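Re: Re: token formats

Sure, here are both.
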Amino acid sequence: MRSYINGRPQELGAAFAPFFDPATTVVVSIDLHRGHLDDDPACPCPAPRARAIVPAVDAFHRTARAAGIRVIHVRSRLRAGGVDDVNGLKAAWRLVFPLHVGDIPNADEHAIEGTRWNDFVTEVEDRDLIVEGKKRLSAFHPTDLDFLLRNLGTRTIVFDGCLADCCILNSAFDASNLGYHVVVAADLVAGTDAALEASALRIVATHLGLVSDAAMITQAWRCRLP
């Protein structure tokens, strides 16, 4: 078992074995839909760095399924008309994110139900589960993700998706606070930029759980499988 400590891969002791137990692990993939990933000027909340991770995420999910591990796809979804966000008290990101990345002309369309922006870009199989209704930055708020995970007997969550410094980081905090083992797949998440991505992963590794890469995680799973 290996994980990144201070940015370098290191071997872990036996205390971390539960983080890599396939029998109690679920993969949670966050917001890999067209609203972030479309290469279109109308994309309502572009996360261009995340486009590059899609093939590797799909491959990782196939490996997880083959190991008997459930894959849960989480996506933001807001009611048409914007009552959940745009027309009420706006989520902070709508105000502050453009200060750093520039104006986002179609931001009010982000995550609106019934639009093409909600279509997943990653592969979704019939055996997978989908969690809808994410309306803020954490995959747990205000969705039924925690309810679902507990019904599945989950002890460890492996996160992939976007954005590393936003929804992944927020979800990792919530998962840790709710008592789950947290693993973030470093090469299967993408951030606003390289610096924020690296900082988010260091925060996870220092306070919340483990940061490994897909190869490290799948190798650890193989060692636990009969």
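Second one below.
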Amino acid sequence: MDTEAEPLERDRSSAPATGTEERSRFSRIPSRFSRVPSRCAASVSWRGTLALGAVCAVGVLLFSTFVVQPFLIPSGSMEPTLQVGDRVLVNKLAYRFGSVPRRGDVVVFDGTGSFVQEAPPENPVSGLLHGAAASLGLAEPAETDFVKRVVGVGGDRVVCCDKRGRVEVNGRPVNEDYLFAGDTASRAPFDIVVPDGTLWMMGDHRSNSRDSRDHLGEPGGGMVPVDKVIGRADWFGWPLDRLGTVPDTTAFEGVPAPGPAHG
């Protein structure tokens, strides 16, 4: 009887691989496709970033359209209150809930039909891009948008000038402390009554401002309809050393309400 134990067959699955043994072709599959997950992750990451950027851009544009809009000051017509290159933040809610522009307010408005008889033609695509940039304060405003100070409201009689060279509103002289140094209230005399629902606008730098005075002989007589007001310039957004609120004025506090004696 053969008592010698038969040698047990070695389990090949546990045997170490020899140098001559060919590696399984399936063992190379992960190395071929190991970059696929990272590429997919990168693609998803870029798509997420682009989507987030688009959402943020739309949100900013909507905020600018309906709430607060940056407005680049393109000229010196409102000096010294507003300087060339300032970005003011226009409060579009200022007159949305029953409030109306008051004498002394600095407002941004669409001058089509008053300061500009019709909007100049432009390429639709470039116009859209420029409008988007302007609404973010990155480009000059449209040629039909202006920033001026309200000097007369509906029913007011505005006269220039009294013996001391001041504008009178409803018979009361106005000490306009915001005027550019050395400027007079107006070199051209005028005597007008502001129709209801409109505004008489003037720049603070009177000798460097084309405003309601320059359009007296045109359709509309230089009067700006209240519904053309875009908003009130309430704050400075740029430059950093001018951050804060646009200065208010008390120049019109003593002006009486319009009445038959003044109209």
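The helical segments are 29-33, 36-66, 124-135. The CA atoms of residues 212 and 222 lie 4 Å apart.
- S.
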